Amino acid sequence: QRMDQSLVLSLVESVVSGVSTRKVTKIVEALCGESVSKSFISDIMKRLDPEIEAFRTRPLHLKQYRYLYVDAMY
User: Fold this and answer.
1) pLDDT at residue 49 in the model
2) Average pLDDT score over the chain
3) Distance between CA 28 and CA 31 in Å, rounded?
4) Could you report the per-residue pLDDT of 23-43, keeping only the tens digit for each?
5) What is the DSSP string of the chain?
6) Per-residue pLDDT at 2 exceeds 70
7) Who is most buried in 45, 52, 61, 62, counting CB within 10 A?
8) Contact, 25 vs 35, CB < 8 A?
9) CA separation, residue 57 to residues 10, 18, 71 (Å)
10) Is this structure's pTM higher than 0.70?
C-alpha cells in the first residue's frame, strides 16, 4: 500500500510540474509495466482540487511573515 501511495504521489507531482497526462501514462508503463488511462490520471488530480483551493484561498493576514517569496509561471 505504501508503494501504491508513492506511485500516486509521483504521478501527482509529475502533473503538477507540468508533465502531460499522456506522458505520465507512458512513464507508468515504462516503470511498472502496467498501463493506466489518461482518465485515471485526471481522476487522481481531481482529488487534489479541494486542497489546492483551500491553499489558494487561505487567509494570509492572520500571521506575520518575515519573508514573502513569489513564484509564478506564465
Assistant:
1) 80
2) 80
3) 5
4) 888 888 887 787 777 787 778
5) -HHHHHHHHHHHHHHHTT--HHHHHHHHHHHHS----HHHHHHHHHHHHHHHHHHHT--STTS--S--------
6) no
7) 45
8) yes
9) 25, 22, 17
10) no
